[in-house]
């Protein structure tokens, strides 16, 4: 009986291809993306904590996820989470990609935002809620308000009003009225550049 089952599997081309695609733990497509990310990191002259990230699978996996999110590659980010739902550790760096909750808000994907927040894998600024408000993503606005402390800024109010997102406007006015006077956050890319500059000075 077992021999018959094995024969049927091996003679089913589509099933055999699927099984073999997972021989290294992830599909061939995702493995290719992983190798590309690893090669890019190795060649980057300014990458922070490069040796640590490359040597620790949990940290590299999180690095890869955050870089995919930053690059708006929602397909591969979700595929990575599907194939590898566990085993993530945030890289100990100050870089634009570490603000993954901001970047996930751009992707308008609340499940990724929840995953990053609940596993403490990424940072956020007021930009996250501002972006969600500007897109009319009331569910993301509500989640960020209920679970995080960054809040939003005047920008969130202005853009929600400009695009007439009534539900968002009403929610912000009721729950985040103090943030109407808050200034926008500093761009994380500037924070990252400052961190790189400090690191270079330290090396010298």
UniProtKB/TrEMBL annotation:
InterPro entries: Ankyrin_rpt-contain_sf (IPR036770), SecEffector_AnkRepeat (IPR052050). It comes from the Eukaryota. This is Uncharacterized protein.
